[in-house]
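Protein 1 of 2
SEQ + STRUCT:
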Amino acid sequence: MKSSLKSFFKILPPALLLCLLSCGKNGGSESPEGGQDKEETVEIEIKGTLVRTSTADPCLLYKDGFFYMTMTGSSNLAMVVDREIPKLSTAFHPIDPSIYIYQSSADPSVEALYGEGAKINGTWSPEIHYLSEEDCPGNSGWYLLFAIRKENLVNGSVNSEFIRMVVLKSLTGSSRGPWVNPVDGTVGKTQPLLTADGKVYTDWGCGQSLLKIPSGKHKGIYITWVAEEGRGQGYGKFYQKLMIAKMKSPWQMDGEPAILTTPTQDWEKAGASSTLPMVVEGGTAVYGDKGEIFMAYCGSGYWSDYGLGQLTLLRGSDGDYADPTIPSSWVKYENNPVFSSKNSSDLRGAGHAFFLKDAAGRRFMCYHAYTYTNGTKSSSRNAYMESYEIDSEAVCESAPYGVLRFGLRGDGQSASTASAYTFSYLKR
């Protein structure tokens, strides 16, 4: 362990090394800027929804006075941290190795997972989570969930056939890391997701997220992800499916994976072809103030009418949650999508959402989208953020506890600049 740490620190950029050596001194309530002064809540109004340019697959978490954003970076992963959302931008945190928290070229598990000489040319859908001792007894701490894609070119184009899910854990009480294998403690070495019997889960999978059932006979942590069926079998036979499994640890299942949902609504099938799948992916939990549990998922291809659909976890008359690993425990909203940029004047492909609350308990969603100008979609995505609410008055058979409502509703208005919101943070 000590030798692996020495090797790791030798290759670190000076800025990141300084960060790693100075953080993690405050346990779970970390303070990247240091200090133990009295905190006060500060409110800021933001006009426009843009958070960070050239950013895909953003995950935005708020904890202990800081906002944490992870993002995809080709064969690397990056994270930026600040008390204020506007300071998560590239102006304050430029894209360079100082913000990397994972580099595939230094990951010894790549060859173990894919074979000798294998390389990674894609990291997918990173999410950062803090799990308490109550959540995971004996395994509390910061975790990074993501997927890695083996470099595999077919006719000069990238083939996404080989994508596998992995996990890292912070060695310290700080989200800054160093990030290590949660089983053997090796720095930078990812831990592949394991089945219930301890074997490496080798099926195609990405887009992991965590679902917490807070009480009842199904209490525990669950992992959700997207899998696929029928690759290479042509239109109508190639599709994605949302999966779920209960976890015994943040890297190992505690039962057989179950299918949560498949593309059943017309909007989910938009963009599919003989080589492109019908899409449901990115299932992310959304929690209501009265115990409601929703799942916002992406449907349709990101190249097409990408948007968010809503699933709702049912509860019994006694208030207990239904078994989340049984598909009939979830109800799909009949009027999906609940969020889409299809008719926006300046965005396309808005999706891949992550949900959070600020210091005042306000609800926000962070997502990515392409800018759309004069009929042309940009080649890279940006990260955006806006408020949302749970409309408890819009109850119906397919939305028994209400409907998720967002600022971007496809009304043809400027989605990236017209909106404004207020967020709160703790200031020392």
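Protein 2 of 2
SEQ + STRUCT:
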Amino acid sequence: MGSFIQLSASDGTQIPAYVAQPETPAKAAVVVIQEIFGVNAHIREVADAYAKEGYLAIAPAMFHRAQANVELGYTDADMGAGMALKTAVESLPAPGAMQDIQAAIDHAHKACGGKVGIVGYCWGGLLTWRAACMLQGLSAAAPYYGGGVTTAAETARQARVPVMAHFAEEDKWIPMDSVEAFKAAHPQVQVFTYAAHHGFNCNHRGAWQAEAAALAKQRTLDFFKTNLA
């Protein structure tokens, strides 16, 4: 359904992004932020699914500043490679890869003429939270099990747009007490938890939990319908 385009970030860097177009004129746009595995088959499928719901969907290649054409699977080796690339991108001088997300938001606005939301998974969930707090042009944000979102440094940020956050109750990376602390610090954020493990939305990995994924997706669609209209 989709194809790759080149985005131009504020520093002039060209960043690839996967774009999925709806069959009818887009009612709004959704920026999709990858896990630590690149814009792989799963992330492209997520973008395609949002396009089927009537949104223009765009998934920027968030590892491009560290390594081009990253597309990993979900083995232990892939996990190690993805973590190393995440560390490399997180170590970039500010604004780092956040300007690549801004470029995706700006492109989405021009391409569809409507409001723009953002959704992200794992590391992408963290970047989605940061985008909601730091970037311009968004109208809603939905981070999924964002590693680091519930740390003190990230909890101290304040979202500029409505946020719906999804967490897994059996997530070994994100303790539930930290989720409760985040929820208390941000009463305006809709926080949902699921009887599932980290990565429950991804049907390409063993952590996939179909019922939790479907419920979170429907909640996110309803959230976007309200805030991107």
